[in-house]
Amino acid sequence: MVKTWSTPAADDEKRPIPCALCGHHLFKPALLCGGFFYVRCTSCGLVQINPQPLESEIKRRYGENYLAYELENEDTFFNLQLLGLADTNFDRLAFTAVKKPRILDIGCATGKLLEHLREKGWETTGVEISAPQAEYCRQNRNLDVRSIPLAENHFPPGSFDVVHASHLVEHVNDPAGLAREVSRILAPEGRFFVTTPNIAGFQARLFKGRWRSAICDHLYLFSIKTLSRLLVENGFAIEKAVTWGGLAAGIAPLPLKRLFDRAAKRFGFGDVVMIRAKRKG
Q: N or C: which terminal CB in the chain sees fewer CB atoms within 10 Å?
């Protein structure tokens, strides 16, 4: 089973933390992944690495090698983002009628999605803590991309109509703080589009610690239930949730993969989940 890009499991400085979703301190083993492990909160069920690497350790992981990986897979990732946005009715929402709607892409990688939306008339901004990727966005695509964490940008309240975060929330030490900051900088009626691996999906259940998204860079593994709770408790109402990816390419004959992929989308057991949430108030 081929996993997503990750840094090798290392002896980083770590500290025990309360559950990022409910604040409880009791956990049970969840996944043993070879060199590291996940635990599950006994109260809310959030799967997480705990003890957890410090934020300073996390920032050092995303250098030139990560840029090369993102560039190699850029078209694939971009097409998946477009499909996910289509599944959550991105183009049908009211903000698309605004003359120049504003979008922030957190973890924007090489900036291909932002470039695409700029061509469609959007006012685009990106946040990308990988300095090589942020520089690539600025130099090669002339995008406004900042290479410091979201909160350190101090965007004014109501700065954006849409915030998009694809495969980002599982990487950050404080996902609840991320959600609160997104709520603060969204305009009234603004939307937050969040994509992340689905720990409740078929592949996660089948492969367990060998699941391709069970990597040491993913500090949290969310389900629709836990991600929805995170958003609701930090300023959002859930409007739509979709999953996709029944079987990974190469592990089953193509006809069987297509059957599983259709079923995963219909019944919600896909490998990846995307939620469209609306800012409350």
A: C
Name the strand (E) or helix (H) holding 141.
Answer: helix 131-141
- 122-133 pLDDT, tens digit per residue, is 999 999 999 999
Q: Record the tokens describing residue 235, joined without a space.
A: 């300023």
Neighbours of 13 (CB within 10 A): 9
The 10s digit of each residue's pLDDT in 241-264 is 999 998 887 788 888 989 989 999
Which CATH fold would you assign to the domain 14-279? Answer: Rossmann fold (3.40.50)
Query: Is residue 1 scored above 60 in pLDDT?
Result: no
Cα angle 192-202-210, degrees, rounded to a multiple of 5 = 100
Find all residues with CB under 8 Å of 184, minimum gap 6, and list them: 157, 235
